[in-house]
Amino acid sequence: MMTTATPPVNENYKAVYLTAEDLRVAASILYNAYHDDPFFIAALHKGDRAQYEQKLRGAIREELHTLWQEEQALIGLFEEERLIGLACIVTQQVPLGEARYWHWRLKMLLSAGWQSTQALMKKESSILEHLPSTQCGILQFIAVTPIEQHKGLGKRLIQAVMSWCDEQPELEGVGVYVTQDDHAHLFSSMDFAPIERLVIGGVPGELLFYRSPEVE
Protein backbone atom coordinates (compact mmCIF):
# COMPACT_ATOMS: atom_id res chain seq x y z
CA MET A 1 0.00 0.00 0.00
CA MET A 2 2.94 2.30 0.62
CA THR A 3 5.18 1.15 -2.24
CA THR A 4 6.39 4.07 -4.33
CA ALA A 5 9.41 5.06 -6.36
CA THR A 6 9.18 8.57 -4.94
CA PRO A 7 11.62 9.62 -2.19
CA PRO A 8 12.02 9.65 0.69
CA VAL A 9 12.59 5.95 1.33
CA ASN A 10 11.69 5.54 4.97
CA GLU A 11 10.42 2.33 6.48
CA ASN A 12 8.87 4.30 9.33
CA TYR A 13 6.09 5.59 7.06
CA LYS A 14 2.81 3.69 7.14
CA ALA A 15 -0.68 4.26 5.78
CA VAL A 16 -3.46 3.04 8.09
CA TYR A 17 -7.04 3.97 8.93
CA LEU A 18 -7.49 6.85 11.36
CA THR A 19 -8.87 6.30 14.83
CA ALA A 20 -11.18 8.67 16.71
CA GLU A 21 -8.15 9.94 18.63
CA ASP A 22 -6.55 11.09 15.35
CA LEU A 23 -9.41 13.34 14.24
CA ARG A 24 -8.29 16.51 16.04
CA VAL A 25 -4.83 16.43 14.47
CA ALA A 26 -6.35 15.43 11.12
CA ALA A 27 -8.66 18.47 11.20
CA SER A 28 -5.69 20.74 11.89
CA ILE A 29 -3.75 19.31 8.94
CA LEU A 30 -6.74 19.78 6.63
CA TYR A 31 -7.34 23.33 7.85
CA ASN A 32 -3.78 24.37 7.04
CA ALA A 33 -3.85 22.61 3.68
CA TYR A 34 -7.16 24.09 2.53
CA HIS A 35 -6.85 27.56 4.06
CA ASP A 36 -6.01 29.13 0.69
CA ASP A 37 -8.05 26.78 -1.49
CA PRO A 38 -9.91 28.83 -4.15
CA PHE A 39 -13.17 26.92 -3.75
CA PHE A 40 -13.33 27.26 0.03
CA ILE A 41 -12.46 30.95 -0.20
CA ALA A 42 -15.29 31.45 -2.70
CA ALA A 43 -17.74 29.38 -0.66
CA LEU A 44 -16.92 30.57 2.86
CA HIS A 45 -15.20 33.96 2.69
CA LYS A 46 -17.65 36.84 2.94
CA GLY A 47 -15.17 39.65 3.54
CA ASP A 48 -14.11 38.92 7.13
CA ARG A 49 -10.91 36.87 7.39
CA ALA A 50 -11.45 35.81 10.99
CA GLN A 51 -14.98 34.70 10.21
CA TYR A 52 -13.74 32.80 7.16
CA GLU A 53 -11.18 30.92 9.22
CA GLN A 54 -13.81 30.08 11.83
CA LYS A 55 -16.17 28.79 9.14
CA LEU A 56 -13.42 26.74 7.50
CA ARG A 57 -12.44 25.13 10.80
CA GLY A 58 -16.07 24.32 11.52
CA ALA A 59 -16.80 22.94 8.05
CA ILE A 60 -13.73 20.70 8.07
CA ARG A 61 -14.44 19.49 11.60
CA GLU A 62 -18.07 18.63 10.83
CA GLU A 63 -17.25 16.91 7.55
CA LEU A 64 -14.44 14.88 9.10
CA HIS A 65 -16.66 13.71 11.96
CA THR A 66 -19.47 12.89 9.51
CA LEU A 67 -17.15 10.76 7.38
CA TRP A 68 -15.97 9.00 10.55
CA GLN A 69 -19.51 8.33 11.75
CA GLU A 70 -20.53 7.03 8.31
CA GLU A 71 -17.54 4.65 8.36
CA GLN A 72 -15.99 6.12 5.24
CA ALA A 73 -12.32 5.62 4.39
CA LEU A 74 -10.07 7.97 6.38
CA ILE A 75 -6.51 6.97 5.52
CA GLY A 76 -3.73 8.46 7.61
CA LEU A 77 -0.07 8.66 6.68
CA PHE A 78 2.08 8.24 9.76
CA GLU A 79 5.77 8.62 10.44
CA GLU A 80 6.06 6.14 13.29
CA GLU A 81 3.27 7.38 15.61
CA ARG A 82 2.99 10.92 14.19
CA LEU A 83 0.16 11.73 11.78
CA ILE A 84 1.67 13.73 8.90
CA GLY A 85 -1.00 13.43 6.20
CA LEU A 86 -4.38 12.00 5.35
CA ALA A 87 -6.81 11.23 2.56
CA CYS A 88 -10.59 11.12 3.03
CA ILE A 89 -12.77 9.17 0.59
CA VAL A 90 -16.55 9.15 0.54
CA THR A 91 -18.66 6.69 -1.47
CA GLN A 92 -22.18 7.06 -2.76
CA GLN A 93 -23.35 4.53 -0.20
CA VAL A 94 -24.08 7.63 1.90
CA PRO A 95 -26.24 10.57 0.73
CA LEU A 96 -24.21 13.34 -0.91
CA GLY A 97 -24.89 16.70 -2.50
CA GLU A 98 -28.53 17.75 -2.36
CA ALA A 99 -29.35 14.42 -0.68
CA ARG A 100 -27.28 15.16 2.43
CA TYR A 101 -28.88 14.18 5.74
CA TRP A 102 -30.77 16.92 7.57
CA HIS A 103 -28.53 16.59 10.65
CA TRP A 104 -25.43 17.20 8.48
CA ARG A 105 -27.12 20.27 7.00
CA LEU A 106 -27.97 21.58 10.47
CA LYS A 107 -24.47 21.09 11.85
CA MET A 108 -22.88 22.60 8.75
CA LEU A 109 -25.37 25.48 8.84
CA LEU A 110 -24.35 26.30 12.41
CA SER A 111 -20.65 26.05 11.52
CA ALA A 112 -20.52 27.70 8.10
CA GLY A 113 -23.84 29.43 7.40
CA TRP A 114 -26.61 28.69 4.91
CA GLN A 115 -24.99 30.02 1.72
CA SER A 116 -21.75 28.18 2.43
CA THR A 117 -23.60 24.96 3.18
CA GLN A 118 -25.48 25.30 -0.12
CA ALA A 119 -22.18 25.85 -1.96
CA LEU A 120 -20.68 22.68 -0.46
CA MET A 121 -23.72 20.61 -1.48
CA LYS A 122 -23.72 22.05 -4.99
CA LYS A 123 -20.06 21.17 -5.37
CA GLU A 124 -20.78 17.53 -4.53
CA SER A 125 -23.80 17.43 -6.83
CA SER A 126 -21.71 18.79 -9.73
CA ILE A 127 -19.04 16.16 -9.16
CA LEU A 128 -21.59 13.34 -8.91
CA GLU A 129 -23.20 14.38 -12.20
CA HIS A 130 -19.94 13.83 -14.07
CA LEU A 131 -18.71 10.60 -12.47
CA PRO A 132 -19.07 7.47 -14.63
CA SER A 133 -21.60 5.80 -12.34
CA THR A 134 -22.97 5.62 -8.82
CA GLN A 135 -20.29 3.04 -8.01
CA CYS A 136 -17.59 5.68 -7.64
CA GLY A 137 -15.97 7.33 -4.66
CA ILE A 138 -14.94 10.97 -4.22
CA LEU A 139 -11.64 12.02 -2.70
CA GLN A 140 -13.00 14.72 -0.40
CA PHE A 141 -9.71 15.76 1.19
CA ILE A 142 -6.03 14.99 0.77
CA ALA A 143 -3.28 16.81 2.62
CA VAL A 144 0.22 16.61 4.04
CA THR A 145 1.23 18.71 7.04
CA PRO A 146 3.17 21.82 5.89
CA ILE A 147 6.53 20.91 7.43
CA GLU A 148 6.50 17.53 5.61
CA GLN A 149 5.64 18.82 2.15
CA HIS A 150 7.90 18.59 -0.92
CA LYS A 151 9.13 15.15 0.14
CA GLY A 152 7.03 13.06 -2.23
CA LEU A 153 4.52 12.18 0.48
CA GLY A 154 1.58 13.40 -1.58
CA LYS A 155 2.32 10.62 -4.04
CA ARG A 156 2.43 8.12 -1.21
CA LEU A 157 -1.03 9.22 -0.10
CA ILE A 158 -2.43 9.06 -3.63
CA GLN A 159 -0.98 5.59 -4.05
CA ALA A 160 -2.62 4.55 -0.77
CA VAL A 161 -5.96 5.83 -2.14
CA MET A 162 -5.47 3.85 -5.35
CA SER A 163 -4.58 0.70 -3.42
CA TRP A 164 -7.65 1.13 -1.21
CA CYS A 165 -9.83 1.59 -4.29
CA ASP A 166 -8.42 -1.54 -5.92
CA GLU A 167 -9.46 -3.53 -2.85
CA GLN A 168 -13.12 -2.40 -3.02
CA PRO A 169 -14.93 -4.80 -5.38
CA GLU A 170 -18.06 -2.61 -5.50
CA LEU A 171 -16.20 0.52 -6.65
CA GLU A 172 -15.35 1.42 -10.23
CA GLY A 173 -12.93 4.09 -9.15
CA VAL A 174 -12.37 7.39 -7.35
CA GLY A 175 -12.87 10.95 -8.60
CA VAL A 176 -11.14 14.10 -7.39
CA TYR A 177 -11.90 17.75 -8.15
CA VAL A 178 -8.86 20.05 -8.16
CA THR A 179 -8.61 23.79 -8.69
CA GLN A 180 -4.85 24.15 -9.05
CA ASP A 181 -2.82 23.08 -12.09
CA ASP A 182 0.04 21.56 -10.09
CA HIS A 183 -2.44 19.34 -8.26
CA ALA A 184 -3.99 18.27 -11.57
CA HIS A 185 -0.54 17.39 -12.91
CA LEU A 186 0.24 15.36 -9.78
CA PHE A 187 -2.94 13.28 -10.04
CA SER A 188 -2.46 12.87 -13.80
CA SER A 189 0.99 11.43 -13.17
CA MET A 190 -0.64 8.85 -10.86
CA ASP A 191 -3.10 7.39 -13.41
CA PHE A 192 -5.97 9.79 -12.73
CA ALA A 193 -7.52 10.65 -16.10
CA PRO A 194 -9.23 14.00 -16.73
CA ILE A 195 -13.01 13.75 -17.12
CA GLU A 196 -14.28 17.30 -17.35
CA ARG A 197 -13.36 20.94 -16.81
CA LEU A 198 -15.89 22.34 -14.35
CA VAL A 199 -16.72 25.72 -12.90
CA ILE A 200 -18.15 25.24 -9.41
CA GLY A 201 -19.16 28.24 -7.35
CA GLY A 202 -17.47 30.48 -9.89
CA VAL A 203 -14.15 28.63 -9.46
CA PRO A 204 -12.71 26.75 -12.46
CA GLY A 205 -11.26 23.32 -11.82
CA GLU A 206 -10.82 19.86 -13.24
CA LEU A 207 -12.44 16.55 -12.35
CA LEU A 208 -10.08 13.59 -12.64
CA PHE A 209 -10.84 9.90 -12.20
CA TYR A 210 -8.89 6.82 -11.23
CA ARG A 211 -10.47 3.66 -12.61
CA SER A 212 -9.81 0.42 -10.78
CA PRO A 213 -8.03 -2.13 -13.02
CA GLU A 214 -10.66 -4.69 -12.00
CA VAL A 215 -13.35 -2.87 -14.00
CA GLU A 216 -11.33 -1.97 -17.10
From TrEMBL:
User: Keywords in UniProt for this one?
Assistant: Transferase
Alphabetized GO MF terms: acyltransferase activity, transferring groups other than amino-acyl groups
Q: What is this protein called?
A: GNAT family N-acetyltransferase
Q: Which organism is this entry from?
A: Shewanella insulae
Per UniProt, residues of the N-acetyltransferase domain are: 63-183
Pfam families assigned: Acetyltransf_1
Q: Which domain of life is it from?
A: Bacteria
* InterPro entries for the chain: Acyl_CoA_acyltransferase, GNAT_dom
